[in-house]
Specification:
There is one protein chain. The chain has 65 residues and is an all-beta fold. Helices cover 0% and strands 28% of the residues. The strands form 2 sheets. Strands 1-4 form a two-stranded antiparallel ribbon. The radius of gyration is 11 Å and the shape is globular.
């Protein structure tokens, strides 16, 4: 499990299916915000979590700008 100790991770200005504010999704794939009150609540640590899915066998990384 990867944990993020960063209050800016709570900011998702472009919506629940875009990169969090101040973060970039590297090498394709997709990201979705998960957690309490959202569609996917199965994986959660703290107020919000991200579900990162790779595409076409690529390694996908969500990294801070």
């Amino acid at each position: 499990m990867n944990l993020v100790a960063d209050n800016t991770f709570l900011l998702w200005g472009a919506g629940d299916s875009s990169d969090p504010t101040m973060y970039d999704l590297v090498t394709g794939g997709s990201v979705a915000r998960t957690g309490t009150g959202l569609a996917d609540t199965t994986r959660k640590w703290g107020a919000f979590a991200a579900k990162v899915t790779s595409a076409a066998g690529n390694n996908t990384t969500l990294q801070q700008e």
